[in-house]
Amino acid sequence: MNITDACFSDADKARVYLESLRWPGGPVCPHCGSQKATSLEGLKHRPGVYQCNEAECREQFTVTVGTVMERSKIPLNKWLYAIHEMGASKKGKSAHQMHRELGITYQSAWFMCHRIREAMRDDSPSMMGGGGKVVEADETYYGRSKQKHPLSRNRKPTYTKKGWKDKGSARPIVALVERGGSVRSFHIGHATQAQVEKIVTENVAKESRLHTDESRLYTRIGAEFAGHETVKHSAKEYVIYNHTFDENRKLHTEVITTNTIEGYFSIFKRGMKGVYQHCDEKHLHRYLSEFDFRYNSRTALGVTDTERAGRIVRGAEGKRLTYRRPDGTSL
Ligand SMILES: [Zn+2]
Fold first, then answer.
1. Rounded mean pLDDT of 265-280?
2. What spacing in Å lies between the alpha carbon of 11 and ligand 1's midpoint?
C-alpha cells in the first residue's frame, strides 16, 4: 500500500479495506460478536451497513462501530490516510499538517489525531523482560507544567536531572525499554521513588536484569531483580563492558548502558519539538503512546508501513474516544 492507492482518495474503497483488516473472516457484529450478518446494501442503505442475524440482537452496524472512528463525519479515506501517515512518519504528523493535506478543519484534524493516538495505545500490556533479558529504566523531563506540582516541604527535590532548577514545574517521564524489544513510557507528576518503583514493579518481570543510571530512584527496587547494574553518568560513564567466563571458559560480555532508552528519549524530544511544538500537559501521555507505538512497530523489527497502519486499525477497536463539541455534536 502506498499513498497513491485508491483507498486514500475513495471513501468506499477505504471502507472495503478497513473491513478486510477488521474482519478478515467477514463482518462480525460489534454488539454481540456474532459472525452472522447480512449486508443491507441496496435495501435503502449505503454500502457498508450490515445487520446482525441473531434473533435476539438484530442490530445494524458498520466497520467503524465500536472504534475510535465511530460517529465521525470525516470520510474513511481521510481517516485511512491519517492513520497511514501517523504510523509512517518518523516524528509524527501534526494536526496542522493533516488539516492542510486533508482539507478538513484544524479542530477536526486535532480530534482525529488524538483518536489515532488512542488507537495506538497498548491497552493490554504484558510484563517486559524476563530471564536473561535486560530492561533499561530511565527518566527524563519534557517541557514545563502549567500547573505547579508543589513539592512537599519535608521532601528534598534531589531526584531531578541537570538543567531543571525549578523542580516543581518540570514534566517527568519515566520509560522502560527491553533491550532489542519494546518501550513503555509514562508521564508522572513527580519522579519520586515510590512512583518509579510502582511503574517498574508493574511492568518489568523480576527475572530481568535492570540497567539504570546511578539515580537513587532505582536502588531499592533494583535489589528485587535478577541483577541491577548502573552506569555513572555524572562521571561521564555511559557503557560498561562486563566480561565474565563461564565454567567452560567461554567469554560472556554484558553491555551495561542506558543508551537505548536515551536514544528513545531523543527521538521523542526531536519529534515533539519539530512537529508538535505545543503540547498540553494533560495530553502528554497521548503523545507518549504515539511514540511508544512507532518505536514498538519500527522497521528494524520487520514491520512495514502497511502493517503498522493495520495495527492502528485493529487497535482502534474497543476504544471509543468520542469528543463532543460544546453543542453536543461530534466531530
Ligand atoms: Zn449482533
1. 86
2. 25
